Amino acid sequence: MDQHLGEYLGVEADWSLDGDPVDTIEVISPHTEQPIARVVQAQPADVDAAVVAARAAVDQGPWPRLEPADRIAVVRRLAEVYARRHGEMAQLISAEIGAPISFAQRAQVGLPTMMMSAFCDLAETHPWHETRTGFFGSDVHIRKDPVGVVAAVVPWNMPQFLIVTKLVPALLAGCAVVLKPAPESPLDALLLAEMLREVGLPEGVVTVVPGDATVGAHLVGHPGVDKVSFTGSSAAGRAVAAAAAANLTKVSLELGGKSAAVILDDADPAAVAAGVRSASLSNSGQICNALTRILVPVTRQHEFVDALADRMNALVVGDPADPATELGPLVSRRQQQRVRDYIDLGQREGARLVCGGTDLPDGMDTGWYVRPTLFAGADNSMRIAREEIFGPVLTVIGYRDEDEAVAIANDSDYGLAGSVWTADPERGIGIAERVQTGTFGVNQGYTMDPFAPFGGIKDSGYGRELGREGLDGYLETKSIAVAATR
């Protein structure tokens, strides 16, 4: 790592374990439970300095005044640098959050690489300027301008993906960004900062401020910020919205989920089990759009439960650095205990524990692991069916007919994602149109297609990322009416 990184960030960055710096973030391996790095935490004064620098970059700097094609060229160079350091980034993410290295390579880093190129493609065809003939006969010029200074706050579970889906469209729009990564995963953000410096962004356009919730609160409530883009829990999202409201700061929130997979009576159990495994248990279930409520017809419930249990029992749980590992540890001891508490709660509520449980996986005596756990015989009133667990825990709920399946799917405080599984895609689309959620998949989990908008409704937040809508989220629309000449 670049030992001069602190000069770029505006805060110090200590990558070694030598010495005992003050106010540091200690990064702990979820597999070994041992420290792997220490980073100096930003203070409120660092946040203030970052916002001042971003404000200057927006108000006087060259970045927002470049042609879109010039900004696109810089981001394409970033994508090239990012691709060269793909392996390094994947190893870093695997080490800091415990993601299996195969998943880190494919999704934690592979998806962001793809997103960079996809956003550039979108930006090349975006309607930055448009002229319309107004109702009164005069010309109306429509232009898209950068929203200004963006505070981007991301969680630890998919750190680079969530950073890139905020940072890249904001840069393409001409904004400046102050990025706060989660304290569990600051290292990948600092590596990205090195890459950003390499491509030659102007001063103040991007600053990374590693820190805890206190640092985040200071950032999102800062009067110099024009837009907050936040991903995290619904409870934290409410606090962010309240803090931003004091300054009438624009906000987009991508929050929690409790997504349903509606399994229709013509679906194949083996295909469903394979698809749900990928859409529900990747990253040890620590994904916001995970399918965690599995709705099955009561007439075929045993078939689907058995197929899911077989698939879950076959998962390879172990060292995230091992390419054979399919399920790694949870990110922290606190998260491990939270998931264990929900497993105990599910049994007390009367759900049947089909597989998994609170014991460590076989052969594991350290690490924040939880066995992949399946409940059956549950109903939608149970807390394990209503609250976001954020771990490898699935709950099967039976239904009598399609109307009841849709009613159960919609009986949730959340509305982020969902899916339907059927031999008849047209029948599946009919279900998709009735489920109240921002995104949905037919015979798959939601794919996070970079050309399609992603986001939720209800307690899952508001605003959209990805697609043209994601780029528009960092732009202001201005209308200029020109009187007709006489």
UniProtKB/TrEMBL annotation:
Coiled-coil ranges (or none): none
Annotated keywords: Oxidoreductase
Keyword Oxidoreductase: yes
Catalytic activity: an aldehyde + NAD(+) + H2O = a carboxylate + NADH + 2 H(+)
The UniProt record lists the keyword Oxidoreductase: yes
Gene3D superfamilies in the record: Aldehyde Dehydrogenase, Chain A, domain 1, Aldehyde Dehydrogenase, Chain A, domain 2
Residue ranges annotated for the Aldehyde dehydrogenase domain, each copy included: 23-480
EC number(s) on file: 1.2.1.3
InterPro entries on file: Ald_DH/histidinol_DH, Ald_DH_C, Ald_DH_CS_CYS, Ald_DH_CS_GLU, Ald_DH_N, Aldehyde_DH_dom
Catalytic residues identified in the record: 254
Protein family per UniProt: Belongs to the aldehyde dehydrogenase family.
Protein name (record): aldehyde dehydrogenase (NAD(+))
Source organism (scientific name): Mycolicibacterium nivoides
